[in-house]
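Progress report, Aim 2. The chain analyzed during this reporting quarter is listed below.
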Amino acid sequence: MALSMYELTVPVFVRGLKVVSALLKKAEAHVEQHGSVPDALISARLADDMLPLSAQVQRASDTSKMAVERLSGVAAPKFEDNETSFDQLQQRIANTIAYLESVTAAQLDGNEERAINLNFGGFPAFTGQSYLLTFALPNFFFHVTTAHDILRNQGVAIGKRDYLGYV
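Predicted structure tokens for the chain:
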């Protein structure tokens, strides 16, 4: 049996966002345990030319909700990208998950050949399937991975099992 567009999107994105949420909880506990300043961790980045932790969470949220919107035609909520606290980042994740879970399999399945054109970055025209498999999923996991790596780099006690969601 072939995997459906729904199975490749909503459950995958929801699981990844729940992993990010769990990572943020460990980051918040790390800040409390070490008496660190939350802003320093939320604004941490791996390199000067990379986005900070807050933006990695925002981009994971945006990538997942915009992928589902482009593939289903169901309008995604717009967020301002103004989160500056762990609570605000967690709320954004919860709001993103609520949207994702509101989209049904019937709204996503059968859109493998849907034309997807991105109006930024000079990307080629995609089919729904090629967009999902070669752009949306890799982009989503880039931001999930980078959020993990920023936290790890800042001394938060997380590892591969945390990234995989098996802790």
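The chain has a mean pLDDT of 97. The two ends are 30 Å apart (CA to CA). These observations will guide the mutagenesis work planned for the next reporting period.
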